[in-house]
Amino acid sequence: MSMTTQTRTRLRDNHTVRAFVARVFFVFFIVALVTFFVVPMLWLFTAPFDSTPTLAVGIPDWTLDNFREMVENPFALPSIVNSFILSGGTVLIVLLAGAPAAYVLSRARFRGRDTTLYILLLFSSIVTGSAAMVPLFFIALQLGLIDTYHGTIVILAGGLLPASIFILKDFTDTIPRSYEESARVFGANSFQMLRDVVAPVIRPGLAVIAVWAFVNVWSNFLLPFILLRTPSKSPAAVVMYSFYTEGGQAVIRVIAAFSIVYTIPVLLAYLFVNRRYGFRFYGGIKG
Amino acid sequence: MGSVEVTDLVKIFPPDVQVLKDLDLTIHDGEFFSLLGPSGCGKTTLLRTIAGLESPTSGEISISGRPVAALPPGKRNVAMVFQDYALYPHMTVRENIAYPLKVQKTPKVERNERAEGAATSLSLGELLDRRPSQLSGGQQQRAALARAMACRPDVFLLDEPLSNLDARLRLEARGFLKELQSEIGVTTVFVTHDQSEALALSDRMAVLNAGNIMQIGSPREFFHSPANLFVAEFIGMTPVNTLPAKVEGNRLHFGGAEIEIAPEDIARLEKASGLIVGVRPEYVHPQPLHDHHAGMTGRVRLLENLGTHHMVSIDVDGAVVRGLVLDGQEPSLHETISFVAEPERVMIFDSESGAALLHGLRPVH
Fold it and tell me: Which of A159, B94, B287, B304 has the CA that lies 20 to 30 A from B236?
């Protein structure tokens, strides 16, 4: 009798010890994981204000000289404008072409619709992927689109469209057809129906796609690097790569200051959409 | 003002699903007309075809004497209330109600006046500046009705407008809908799968099954003289009792009970190959056991409390017979009791075609 009680106690102790050790490991793991993500963020917000920034994180020696130096760089601030041109232009094309396409794919039934959707999904991972880089460059060269904004924008938009259409189609699927049908019964023509009912209702979906496309282009390095040959046309993501001394040393002071300027528009875009519409998963499960 | 005439209407969804099979239907001006039937019977398709949201495969539809089958929905002068109300989430109640008028290019001042008028008459006056998401289910339903009313259509088309409300509110909304309709007197076509709604609201109604009209008539006709077994089983708060029956001599036998029938009635039953007796639980009454005359006898297998009455189910030769018994007089479970049917409420159907042969037996002197 007492034997079994003892065994049981020992077993329980054993269990408690194991749970404790597991807990300790779990906490260490989480701390390591968080550090991995937090340290770069700390660097991003301290290094620009440090008079002698390095790649290490430390208490900064406060100064704004880094920003002065960045502003004096002939490529830094203009490249932010270039980034806005590329991102804005791409967003415009993605929305103007993607929304009608998604609407039709959601509402109309026609032969090969499902195949089209499947191909879209397939293409979204291929076009503008690194595998297509060489053919894309040649096509752009043949068409005289190298070193032009419109050429780059079209190619960037082409890469983002399949996924955008797919997501928007899913979003449109969740909107009851009765909205459109009631508008039709009340005598609205197709244009009125789209303008007054459909467009406002799918606006949150459009906003999410717009920010997604914007951020995607904003942070795209490879495509603009290959397609835009003139340094003065390069967007921020490419220009960042050019802050070197003649000796090939990275100019960390400028890079740090530029990094934070480069981050701000993306942060603002997220905050705007989050405030206005809230980031939700559209389609499928209702939040 | 607005009648609806449907002639030879056929609707086939490709490739070959025939949803409506050669329907003929006339809905008179100012009538509250219900289309009733189980899900998939084609009632909603019929309503949508009248609205113009579906085009008929063949056949003609006239509204106020004007053929409309070739017209788009907006030109038919009908207003529709959808099951989910379809209130635009980005517009206020006022904008929602005024939207049809805006589409019809009514001047802004008149548009707002009419929207406010419709809203006030449905006691939505306080809520004009709210969004649909800020309204309760009942308020949303009234907003959808107000929007339909403000267009001043020839015909109201209502697609299960009560089904999204909870039970208590549904009763309230039902009474409200009926008052509203008789007040403005607009022809109304109402689709529902709930027979109690159809009975309570309709001037006349039609029951559909598998794309065919089973019967057209007043709620009373449906309840007391169903055209066939399908309608008899579909209509009524409680399930109608159906039992195989046969005539021997001048007596009708069913479920162990026997009733003497008049010679005229016998003549009408002779042609049928087999008979089924239908009698509603409301017209089945318990009788003392020792009084062996004409009863269906069996053990009580189920007691359901309906408030004023109890529904008592007994086993009779493998079939279940239900009767309504006043509260306080119900038997106990497993007790053996005897039920007797009111002869003038007994309905008899052909067992093969399901067609009604008799509604109520004649008294025998």
Answer: B287
> Which chain B residues have any C-beta within 8 angstroms of a chain A C-beta?
51-53, 72-75, 78-80, 82-84, 86, 88-90, 99-100, 103-104, 151, 157
Report chain B's mean pLDDT, rounded to a whole number: 91
| pLDDT tens digits, one per residue of B104-141 | 888 999 999 999 988 988 888 889 999 998 998 889 99
Chain A nearest-CA distance from B98, in A, is: 11
Q: CATH class for domain B4-226?
A: alpha beta
The answer, yes or no, to whether residue A284 has pLDDT greater than 50, is no
**Among A176, A200, A203, whose Cβ lies nearest the Cβ of B86?**
A176
Place of tokens 């499902």: A114
- Percent of chain B exceeding pLDDT 90 equals 67
Q: What average pLDDT does range B221-249 have in this prediction?
A: 92
Buried b (16+ CB within 10 A) or exposed e, A75-108: bbbbbbebbbebbebbbebbbeebbebbbebbee
Architecture (CATH level 2) of domain B237-359 = Beta Barrel (2.40)
Q: How far is CA A179 from the centre of its chain?
A: 32
- B128: Cβ contacts below 8 Å, ≥ 6 apart: B92, B93, B94, B115, B116, B119
Residue pLDDT, tens place only, B13-63: 988 889 999 999 999 999 999 999 999 899 999 999 999 999 999 999 999
Residue A36, CA distances (Å) to A29, A43, A219, B113 in order: 11, 12, 21, 63
Would you say the CATH fold of B237-359 matches that of B4-226?
A: no
Cβ-based neighbour number of residue B214 at 10 Å:
21
Span B175-220, pLDDT tens digits = 888 988 988 899 999 999 999 999 999 999 999 999 999 999 999 9
Residue A285 pLDDT more than 90? no
Question: Is the CB of B88 less than 8 angstroms away from the CB of A181?
Answer: no
Domain segments of chain A as ranges:
2-63, 69-276
pLDDT of residue A132: 79
For domain A69-276, which CATH number applies: 1.10.3720.10, 3.30.160.390, 3.40.50.2300, 3.50.50.60?
1.10.3720.10
In angstroms, the CA A66 to CA B80 distance is 66
CA-based nearest residue to A227, from A120, A151, A124, A142:
A151
Convert the pLDDT of each residue in B296-335 to its tens digit.
999 999 999 999 999 999 999 889 999 999 999 999 999 9
Domain ranges of chain B: 4-226, 237-359
**Inter-axis angle of helices B108-121 and B93-103, nearest 10:** 130
Residues of chain A neighbouring B83 (CB-CB closer than 8 A): 178
Instruction: State the residue for tokens 């008294």.
Output: B363
Between chains, do A184 and B80 touch, taking CB under 8 Å as contact?
Answer: no
Closest Cα of chain B to A99: distance in Å? 18
Instruction: Give residue A283's pLDDT.
Output: 37
Nearest CB partner across the interface for B104, out of A178, A187, A201: A187
Q: Supply the DSSP string of B117-178, one letter for each residue.
A: HHHHHTT-GGGTTS-GGGS-HHHHHHHHHHHHHHT--SEEEEESTTTTS-HHHHHHHHHHHH
Is the separation of the CB atoms in B314 and B321 below 8 Å? yes
